[in-house]
Amino acid sequence: MTIAVGDSIPAATLKTMGPEGPTDISTSDIFSGKKVLLFAVPGAFTPGCSITHMPGYVVNADKIKAAGVDTIACMAVNDAFVMDAWGKAQNAEEILMLADGMAEFTAALGLELDGSAFGLGTRSQRFALLAEDGVVTHLNVESGPGVDVSSAETMMQLL
């Protein structure tokens, strides 16, 4: 079942790149007591994600935070090394890059995407959500290819 507005973010452990290498970070650490804008992409370095989705968040990060968001996070079913390299390549210093390498958190959200036809395996659907203190207040899932309802510009209208 897909997570919905009013639901709590499920408990899970993701990875992020720390000074010593990949580091565990819990959803509790990310979401508890904070307003978080999480957006997810099917894959780091893929064209739509790199050319269209991520840049809007990079360019608007200061405006998003000024509107009351404590953390902007980007998640993909990739490893922490890939997410770190992609964040650096995208100049995403203000964005918490999260790796869901085994798609466990993605599955807990009910937002998996079968990318087998493209040689990608299980990935995340393209989506964005707002959560306050671990409770989803808005959820926008793309219904097809492209970036529309999960874009930074669309999500900023909800702040």
UniProtKB/TrEMBL annotation:
An MF annotation (GO) of this entry: thioredoxin peroxidase activity
Catalytic activity: a hydroperoxide + 2 glutathione = an alcohol + glutathione disulfide + H2O
Domain Thioredoxin: 3-159
GO terms under cellular component: cytoplasm
One Gene Ontology term from the biological process aspect of the record: cellular response to oxidative stress
PROSITE patterns: THIOREDOXIN_2
Cross-referenced Pfam families: Redoxin
Domain of life: Bacteria
CDD domains: PRX5_like
Residues at the catalytic site: 49 (cysteine sulfenic acid (-soh) intermediate)
EC id: 1.11.1.27
Enzyme class (EC, first level): oxidoreductase
Key words of the record: Antioxidant, Oxidoreductase, Peroxidase, Redox-active center
Family named by the database record: Belongs to the peroxiredoxin family. Prx5 subfamily.
Function: Thiol-specific peroxidase that catalyzes the reduction of hydrogen peroxide and organic hydroperoxides to water and alcohols, respectively. Plays a role in cell protection against oxidative stress by detoxifying peroxides.
Record's protein name: Glutathione-dependent peroxiredoxin
Organism: Pseudohalioglobus sediminis
Lineage: Bacteria, Pseudomonadati, Pseudomonadota, Gammaproteobacteria, Cellvibrionales
